[in-house]
Specification:
Layout (H helix, E strand, L loop, with lengths): L4 E2 L8 E5 L5 E8 L3 E7 L2 E7 L8 E7 L3 E2 L3 H8 L11 E11 L4 E10 L2 E16 L5 E12 L18 E15 L2
Antiparallel strand pairs: 1-10, 2-5, 2-12, 3-4, 3-12, 4-7, 5-6, 6-8, 8-9, 9-10, 10-11, 11-12
């Protein structure tokens, strides 16, 4: 976006932000049948952040995801993922993340630690993020962007269903990579 203006002073970035779902991807990757990866995303979510550029650990981020919005580009698989075998959407309609700490780890890097709740099970996870920049969009909104990923074991969250393969191994990996491409708009 050539009309965007880069912010040179990060202290101007302190404030309250809302995640822009139209320009954010909350995704995941899991191995399937031991031979390939299946990628998916959640399409219905909301989140807010209060960022303190001077004291990063005072920053707070909250994200709520609608489990029914899971999308792997295959409706049959998505329905199975919504079932009690995986997300148990009827009993646990939301997945949430609430930050508990943040720390800068490099010039453009930070680690965000927080409580991830899936199927009613809450575990602390740490997500390394890359600060992608700040800009004023053509509508006058201050935007900031982050990208990050972390790996979790789905069994830690009570997602234990699997099927053995004749050739050995299992149908779905225990390890799931969570991927985040986040665009946030500063509240006026």
């Amino acid at each position: 976006m050539s009309s965007a203006t880069q912010h040179a002073d990060r202290s101007q970035l302190s404030g309250r932000y809302t995640i822009d779902p139209a320009h954010t991807r909350l995704g995941f990757v899991a191995r399937h049948a031991m031979v390939t990866k299946v990628r998916g995303a959640f399409n219905d979510f909301e989140g807010t952040a209060v960022l303190d550029a001077e004291n990063l650990d005072a920053s707070k981020i909250t994200v709520t995801i609608k489990a029914k919005s899971i999308d792997t580009r295959n409706e049959q698989r998505d329905e199975h993922l919504r079932s009690n075998d995986f997300l148990a959407m009827a009993d646990y309609p939301e997945i949430s993340f609430v930050s508990t700490s943040a720390r800068q780890t490099g010039e453009q890097e930070l680690e965000l630690t927080g409580d991830l709740t899936v199927r009613g099970v809450t575990k602390s996870v740490t997500i390394p993020f890359q600060f992608e920049g700040a800009a004023t969009d053509p509508f006058g909104n201050v935007r900031i962007g982050f990208e990050g990923s972390t790996t979790i074991n789905r069994k830690d969250f009570g997602v234990v269903w699997n099927a053995p393969l004749e050739t050995g191994g299992v149908l779905v990996s225990e390890k799931v990579v969570l991927e985040f491409e986040v665009s946030m708009i500063k509240d006026a």
